[in-house]
Amino acid sequence: MTGATGFIGGRVTRQLVEAGHEVVAIARNPENARGLASIGVDVRRGDITSKDSLREPMAGADGVFHIAGWYKIGSKDPAEGERINVVGTRNVLTTMKELGIPKGVYTSTLAVFSDTHGKVVDERYQHEGPWLTEYDRTKAVAQHAIAEPMMSSGLPLVIVQPGVNYGAGDTSEIRPTFVRYLGGKLRALPKRTAYCWAHVDDTASAHLLAMEKGRPGETYIVAGPPHTLIEAFAIAERITGIPVPRFHASPGLLRAIAAVSRSERLRDVAGVTYLGSNAKARRELGFDPRPLEVGLRETLQHEMRLLGMTSTAS
Q: CA-based diameter of the chain, in Å?
């Protein structure tokens, strides 16, 4: 397991342990993974950007989950994305091949499609650039230039593509947005911006299903139901009773501000849509993500407890 200390990877690791599997997790600093060690995970020192450090922890494994990744929209050091998302993926998959590990699951993302311009696409869709963010670009390189060619040459790998993930413990840009909303500090929402929303536990379950049922050489979109940000926050208002911003910024306005400020983060929400169909994963894996309102209720109530708030909605 790579990425076991991350948001998705941590949930996958715990679900594997609960299912009775022996899990070896690679961590650059095992001290930061003491919580995993406490539930029986064998934490080994390793770094996906250093291929030599991977061989010993991966030796003897009957399956590999490569979930570790770099996700920092607007980062001042985009070269880190190349090292982790591209070089790191090549290192893990090459080591998997050299050791003859029977099966692997690689975590890609719907972001490799970039802006789908309102269309809900499937696994056959391919975007050739340009890319909205360095994250999108490096994950696309990792999938299309590394993982897919290795699968074509016989590597027993399954690719999964999540969309937006939410839930307690979220480390992405989604959580701070909801926290600002709960605190009355969110001033506007972008028009037309839309994602496929999945509770992190459903995404984690999809990884286990991909290892158990996924066909090597295949890719599965494991994203949740599609909603615009405006729709998602309307659901949040029904759950919490806290009013959402009434000002909805147009894509043109956001793109203009992004161009002047050179803000990758603003460009990434300027009316863009990251939308993919999970029909194949439902059909072949039994993937069944919960509705956004169900998962968001649990998530927002968790955040409100952390903030010492109570819901005023029924």
A: 57
Q: Find the DSSP H helices in 241-291.
A: 251-261, 264-267, 279-285
Q: What is the mean pLDDT of each run of 10 residues along the chain (314 residues)?
A: 96 97 95 92 96 97 96 76 96 98 98 96 94 94 98 98 96 91 96 98 98 98 98 97 96 93 89 97 98 97 93 56
What whole-number distance in Å separates Cα of residue 151 and Cα of residue 216? 8
Beta bridge partners of 159: 106, 219
pTM for the structure as a whole: 0.95
The β-bridge relationship of strands 194-199 and 226-228 is antiparallel
**E-state strands within the chain:** 24-27, 42-45, 64-66, 104-107, 157-161, 164-166, 189-190, 194-199, 219-221, 226-228, 248-249, 273-274
Instruction: Set out the domains of the chain in order of their start, with CATH numbers.
Output: 7-306 (3.40.50.720)
As a whole number of angstroms, the distance between CA 139 and CA 146 comes to 10
Q: Take residue 79 and report the two structure tokens written for it.
A: 């070269």
